[in-house]
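Entry type: protein chain
Record version: 2
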Amino acid sequence: MPTILSRCLIAIVCCVCFALPRVALAEPAPLYFLALSDIHFDPFVTCYRHKAKSCSLIKRLAKAPASQWAALFSEADVDEPRYREDTNYVLLKKNLKEAKLAAAENHVDFVMVLGDTRGHNFRRYYRKYTGDKSHAGFQSFVKKTLTFVNSELSATFADTNVFMVTGNNDTYSRDYQSVPHGDFFRDMGALWSSLIINPRDRAAMRRQFAVAGYYAVDVPKHDSLRLIVLNSVLFSKKSSGKASEKAAQKQLDWLQGQLKEAKKRKQRVFIALHIPPKLDAYATHRWRLFTLQQFWQEKFLVGFDRVITPFHSRIVSIFSGHLHYDWEQSLAIGDDQHVRVMGAPSVSPIFGNDPGFKVYHYDPVNGDIDDFYTYTYPVRGRGTWSIEHVYNLLNKKK
């Protein structure tokens, strides 16, 4: 007959045996993240709205440090946003306020900003409203503009990692011009890395970004997931110069190394970039089917295809901006493989679109983006945000 002590030991062993599988089989936590794109912040809006030949606001901004810009804008840039214009101070504040609420409500793990933080026609407006034609003055004003937007992002997502992507308007030079190892990548590496919470990730981003605007980090709290941020401006048809071409090829080689490392570590991969490789640009919005728009140089499309094809099963999705609309397509790679490409709406309403942003849900169990919410702000509407679209592949009710 078992003694009382032996019965207790058997009971303890059974409890441990039954408890251990429960711990081992625990499902990984779901992941929510938010995407902003094409902010195109334009400090010149009030100047050209009032057809000013000389703009006192811009002159004050040029003299003031970026830390004082919010106070200056709150006095002078007070009009409601308009279609066919880039993002003014009022729209920036509206968008970030709503994004902050959405981030809190959905408990987002991180934020992507998918490129083009700076407004359009920046150099022309700067010269017109300051009278300054120097490159040093222009570069200083761009840097302060991006520093101001960075501070607004930091205040909005104070406890959340923000990962920035380089867009074609994000430059100290003309649009689409990247200068590898140049001032812009050095300065933005220092500035944008401040939005990353973990010191090690912050240092890694800053070091990698200084090369030519690309970097990779493990997703915070989800180390089975790798975020690879590319500078697709280097691949663009509008990019030129031997230095950019060399940097583009170096980026492809780096991407291949990152994907090999992710495979070795059994990680899934998010790829974030600004300019998508190619797509049927009009299939959704203008109903002109079979119109293929190719944004990259052919040799880099071929190179990208070659690099990602062996790893396509590990790539969850490519996230893109640039088009200012909400869209999704499947990118054909190799002979019969596909990778999902998901676009985000712009903050800027310059192309007649409503400003917006997206919240995505990633399910680590099935390894897919299985849900997203698109938030939109009708510029001519009642001034209230709405969830325009809820997409759910699994037909699950939230």
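Comment: Confidence is low (pLDDT under 50) at residues 4-25, 283-291, 393-398.
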